[in-house]
């Protein structure tokens, strides 16, 4: 692992969409927040995964939606705490 850069663990993107979203939203894995995980997932889908099967791409897109929803919930919670 390059210092300062997070990496997606081997085998993570082959898991269920729920497990992918949970791992990418983890503060332990991405201390800077889940947006980093979202960028990595989007990059993989767009550029690294051009040869994905339809079912695998569907799972990754579902994980992306779940992660996005989780990020929205986290943002709303932060706003509530700040108010």
**How many structural domains can be distinguished in the coordinates?**
1
Largest sheet: none
The number of helices is 3
Rounded to the nearest angstrom, the radius of gyration is 13 Å
Average pLDDT reading: 86
Helix content estimate: 55-70%
Number of strands: 0
Residue windows where pLDDT falls under 50 for at least 5 positions: none
Structural class: mainly alpha
Shape: elongated
Order of helices and strands: HHH
Distance between the termini: 39 Å
Question: How much β-strand is present in the residues?
Answer: under 5%
Describe the SSE topology.
Elements: H1 17-24, H2 34-48, H3 54-82
Can you describe what's shown?
With 83 residues, this protein is mainly α. It is elongated. The N and C termini lie far apart (39 Å).
Task: Considering the chains and any ligands shown, give keywords for the structure.
83 residues; mainly alpha
How would you sum up this structure in a few lines?
This protein has 83 residues and is mainly alpha-helical. 63% of the residues lie in helices and 0% in strands.
């Amino acid at each position: 692992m390059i210092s300062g850069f997070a990496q997606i663990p081997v085998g993570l993107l082959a898991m269920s969409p729920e497990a992918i979203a949970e791992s990418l939203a983890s503060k332990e894995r991405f201390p800077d927040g889940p947006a980093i995980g979202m960028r990595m997932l989007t990059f993989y889908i767009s550029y690294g995964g051009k040869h994905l099967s339809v079912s695998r791409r569907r799972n990754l897109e579902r994980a992306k939606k779940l992660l996005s929803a989780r990020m929205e919930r986290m943002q709303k919670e932060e706003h509530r705490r700040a108010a």
